[in-house]
Amino acid sequence: MTLHKPTTALPFLLALVLLLTAGTTGLATTSIQQERDSVPTDRPWSERMALSIIQRAPEAWMNDFQDSPRWNYTLGLVLQSVVEVGLQHEDPRFLAYARSYGDTMIAADGSIRDYDITKFNIDHVAPGPLLLQLYAATGEEKYRTAAETLMRQLDWQPRTTEGGYWHKLRYPWQIWLDGFFMGEPFQAEYAKQFDRPEAFDHIADQFILAEAKMRDPETGLLYHGWDESRLQRWSDPQTGTSPHFWGRAIGWYVMGLVDVLDFLPQDHPRRAELIAILDRTLVAVLAVRDAETHTWWQVIDLPEREGNYLESTASCMFVYAMIKGANEGYLDEKYRQTARESYEGILNTFIRVDPNGEVHLTDGCSVAGLGGDPYRDGSFEYYISEPVRDNDPKGIGPFMRASLEFERENRSSKR
């Protein structure tokens, strides 16, 4: 994701240096804990959510309901978003909070705690942009070394016969939409920062291949997964696709695409094709938006089915992709109004504010996947059976990002 850096402000920079050279989050947590009894309601939604996150998880690794430090995509998503809040609103405490996770998980030699490259789990590449943020802020080589490890995984990630990344080594021949946020924005940012232009052709090919294999010609929606081998019970024997359209899977795909466009060269020969994919995917998504709330359903195209529910994480992802796409000039201005409608729908449908000002995002699907043990068959009944919870990190991260885009749209839109 593009770092929308604030304009130079001496007090902010001095505070940032003090916090980062301290090497701990002591000052940051002390400062924020002074506000733990209440979250100010006069601040932008992005800050209110970030402060609420820190109230619920005083140590950054505690996000995602964990009882021990883990290396995973949810922490990367949430903490990268928290860093963006701090940069845009010139508050170095948020960067220091995120850095505490980096210092917990990355050893002095750059090795990554709780990470095994031989699993080739593309989810574990997703914290890569956070590593690049921390490297840019601190200059500590351990963060670059860790980022290089993640790039090495992508260099050797198993692939389908046409070059699409397997989602994990234990999910052979399978492409999942989830993986397009997990791997590609990091790979694109790394390629731009460290001069690996050959990566951009491969990145574009990934998105184009997925649409070709997973797009439903009737609705334009994208199926959750595709199995080249057709060996999975969930895969259609003719098309290889999974049976349903899961909202968050499509959300991962469009978030990954809108973030990749930040780094893809302006003259790349397939840039226009990627923008067209983003546009037509969002057209299909808007066609199944709930007419009353302007948000989206768990199984996105079946609102009438018993047990289906309006789901917050996918809704936040779609809004982020639309408003960022409009702000950056990737999408037509018409998306600004539809994004605003759906953002208001999120605030009205999913946001709960406690008397002390703490902000909660409700009704998030905790997890969903395909295959595995116990086996997930991709049926409607499966998707609605997964637990629903408040403050799922896969929703609060995109909520902060969408909020930041609305907070900056009037002063920095490229249109």
Automatic annotation (TrEMBL):
GO terms for molecular function: unsaturated rhamnogalacturonyl hydrolase activity. Residues 1-28 form the signal peptide. SUPFAM superfamilies: Six-hairpin glycosidases. Its EC number is 3.2.1.172. Keywords: Glycosidase, Hydrolase, Signal. The keyword Protein transport does not apply. Pfam families: Glyco_hydro_88. InterPro entries: 6-hairpin_glycosidase_sf, 6hp_glycosidase-like_sf, Glyco_hydro_88, PolySaccharide_Degr_Enz. One of its GO terms (biological process) is carbohydrate metabolic process. The keyword Signal applies. This is Unsaturated rhamnogalacturonyl hydrolase.
